[in-house]
Structures are given as C-alpha cells and as structure tokens.
Design brief:
By secondary structure, the protein is mainly alpha-helical. It has 13 helices and no strands. The protein starts with a helix and ends with a helix.
Length: 290
C-alpha cells in the first residue's frame, strides 16, 4: 500500500515535470523564423559571424528575446557542471566556487548563532524570571528584517564578507533561541521531580533529563533557522557583492544571461532541499514517543 502510494506520487511528479517542460518549450519556441536571416547576404553573414551573431543557418535555432528554451538551458547547465570550479577573475568564477563561499558564510553565521542561542535559550527556559525580563527585547528584535542590519554591520565591521556572516547570525538566532527556551520550559514536571527526588546534580539533570526531552523542539528551531539563513544569504550577497551564489545571480542578471540565472536559482533550490533533508534526518533521530 505504501509502495503503491509512493509510486503514484512519483508518477504524478514526473507528469507535472513533463508538463512544465512542455509549457516552457511552447512558451519559448519562436513562432516565426527571423526574416532578416532569410535575406542575409554573404557579406552580412560574414559580418554576423565576426560579431558572434547567428548567421542564416543558425538564426532559426536561436531566440532573440533572451529567455532560453529548455534545450538551451540544458546546454548552459552542462557547461557549468562540466567545470564548476574554474576561476577566470573576480567576475567569472565557477558555480562551485560561488556555492562554497555562500555555504561558508551560512555555516559560520549559523554556528555562531548556535553557540549563543542554545545556551541562552536553555537558561531562559529554566528561569521564568529571566524569560519575563528578556521577552520584551526578543519580541522587539525578532521581527526586524535581517537585511535591515546590513548598513549597521557594514559601518561597524567595515568588511562586506564578515557583514554577510553577521546577517546570517542575526537571522538564525531567533528561531533557535525561542524553540530552545520553549522546549526546556515544557519538559514534563514528572521527569524533573524524579530527578529532584534522586538528588541528581543540576549539570547532570540538564544533560541527561532536560536536553534529551527538549531535543526535538531544539532541532526544529535549528531546522527553521537554517531555512531562513539559506533564504537570506542570497539577498545579502546581492548587496555585499564579490562572491557567493547571490552575487552570481545578480551578476548574471546584469549580463542579461537568463539561462545562468535560472541555473543558479535551481542550484539554490537543490542545496536548500539538501540542507532541509539533513535536519529532517537529525530530527527523526531525536524524536521520541511518550
């Protein structure tokens, strides 16, 4: 029954993918062959070849409005995948290098947020007084868009790459902090009472009772934070420039290379899905049934 359900879902996904490709092909196929190409003289054809423009025989196969057909996009994608780590200067780096820069910024900002949010969330969750005192600050800072911090970060840090890491830190910290505090505060009273009755030390109670009980909620916060961090890095790198998948998208848009933009968008989606699946597996490992 379960296998049959998966098979039907896979078939439906394949059908939707094929339909999407069909719509894409229909929407991007030129309806009329370029007239200019049909009357191109030998001299004009030679000039077009020298300028890198399509000649008579090539014109029918090329579109003029810039949006690629699926086959043109596939050719661009294969070209990127064939050599993802080439480096021809500041504005011409392979997709692998750009992706590595983005993942490095996300990883550093995320780890810093973890180092702050989880211990602080633990303390807030265990202390109702601290929770009440810090709640106004959290409620004011939490809704601020991470990109709103960028000018302040650029002015104070004076380094665009480190400012990008700071933006990832600030957007990752809130879901982890709030979920950790919530998970710790909602550990079953029975378990804490048993630990108190057995005179378990505070440190041992924190690591052997509270942490395993709150782990599913903490991992949920970490998963949400990673999703937000991966969303924000693209916009942040469009602002800071230099390197990264966000900068790659913006640079290719300035070059009017929509095929490269679409390829980068798909790469962002695939990497985001892989990161989310990684946390989903981690969440399964710490989830327990009461």
């Amino acid at each position: 029954m379960k296998a049959s359900f998966r098979l039907r879902a896979a078939m439906l996904s394949a059908f939707l993918f094929a339909a999407l490709l069909g719509i894409w092909q229909l929407g991007t196929t030129p309806r009329h062959a370029p007239q200019a190409a049909a009357v191109m003289t030998a001299e004009e054809a030679e000039y077009a070849a020298l300028m890198g423009l399509p000649t008579t025989g090539q014109a029918a196969a090329h579109k003029n409005d810039g949006f690629p057909t699926p086959s043109q996009f596939a050719a661009h994608a294969l070209e990127h995948l064939r050599d993802p780590f080439y480096d021809n200067g500041p504005n011409d780096k392979g997709i692998g290098i750009q992706l590595a820069h983005s993942l490095m910024r996300v990883g550093l900002g995320y780890l810093l947020a973890m180092a702050v949010a989880i211990p602080l969330g633990f303390v807030i969750g265990m202390s109702p007084l601290l929770h009440k005192a810090l709640d106004p600050f959290i409620q004011v800072l939490k809704p601020i868009s991470p990109l709103a911090w960028m000018p302040i970060a650029l002015y104070t840090i004076k380094d665009s790459s480190v400012s990008g890491i700071f933006v990832i830190f600030i957007c990752s910290i809130w879901p982890m902090l709030i979920n950790t505090a919530f998970g710790v505060a909602n550990v079953r009273r029975d378990w804490l009472n048993v630990a108190r009755t057995l005179e378990v030390s505070p440190l041992r109670k924190a690591f052997e009772v509270i942490l395993p009980a709150a782990a599913p909620t903490i991992i949920t916060g970490m998963r949400i934070s990673m999703g937000i961090a991966w969303l924000v890095i693209v916009a942040a790198e469009m602002l800071i420039g230099g390197t990264g998948i966000g900068y790659f998208v913006w640079n290719e848009w300035n070059n009017l290379s929509l095929a490269n933009v679409i390829f980068a968008v798909l790469v962002i989606g695939v990497v985001g899905m892989a990161l989310d699946l990684m946390f989903a597996q981690l969440q399964k490992k710490v989830t327990y049934a009461e």
